[in-house]
Amino acid sequence: MFPTIKTWASAGIFAGISLIAPMSAIAKTQTPEHYAITSATEKYDASAVQLSYVGLAGGLYSNALGAALALSKTIDALNDAPNAQTLAATRSAWTVARTAYLATEAFRFYGGPIDGAKTELRAAGPEIAISTNFRLVEQLADKGASSAGQRKTLASAATALHNDVAFVLKEWDPIRRTGYAQEFLQLEGSEAMGRILRGLGTQAAVLAKDTRGDEASAILTGMHSIWHAQLNNITAPSIEALLVKIDANAAAAVSSALATAQTQANAKDPALPATLQKLAEAIANAGTHLGVAISIN
Question: Where are the alpha helices (DSSP H) in the chain?
Answer without folding.
Answer: 5-10, 47-80, 84-102, 126-143, 148-171, 180-185, 189-209, 215-228, 239-244, 248-267, 272-289
